[in-house]
Amino acid sequence: MLCQHVVEKVMDEKTLREAGYRQYRGSEIDVWFNLNICQHSGNCVRGDSRLFKLQRQPWIMPDNVDKATVIRVIDTCPSGALKYCVK
Ligand code: SF4
């Protein structure tokens, strides 16, 4: 499965895992996050608090919104710390 971010090259899941990304599974789309790359801009939590909520475990819940919303919000991440994999 190939994973995407609008400004970055496509990576496969094995490469993401090796690069330090953690997987957050959804039924239609998975989200991957790498804290070491995050620039703490807050675009994700401001983009949709149903999807990204810091005071929650897990803080990323892809099934709380539709697939298009996951893609739209992740494409606003300036660092590449967030990626998505459409199933
Ligand atoms: S939008 Fe990206 S860089 Fe900004 S806080 Fe969220 S994960 Fe980090």
Write a short abstract of this structure:
The protein is α+β, with helices and mostly antiparallel strands. The chain has helices spanning 13-18, 43-47, 67-74, and strands at residues 2-5, 8-12, 22-24, 29-33, 82-86.
Explained architecture:
This protein is an alpha+beta fold. It has one domain. 22% of the residues lie in helices and 25% in strands. It contains three helices and five strands, in the order ββαββααβ. Strand 3 and strand 4 form a beta hairpin. It is globular. The mean pLDDT is 91. Iron/sulfur cluster (SF4) binds next to helix 2.
User: What percent of the residues sit in helical stretches (DSSP H or I)?
Assistant: 10-25%
Principal-axes shape call: globular
Which percent range describes the beta-strand content?
25-35%
Helix segment tally: 3
* Category by helix and strand content: alpha+beta
- Order of strands, main sheet, comes to 3-4-5
What is the C-alpha radius of gyration, as a whole number of Å?
A: 11 Å
Total number of strands = 5
Can you give the mean pLDDT?
91
Number of domains: 1
- As residue ranges, the low-confidence spans are none
Q: How many strands, what sense, and barrel or not for the largest sheet?
A: 3 strands, antiparallel
Distance N to C terminus: 8 Å
Topology pattern, helix = H, strand = E: EEHEEHHE
Hetero compounds: iron/sulfur cluster
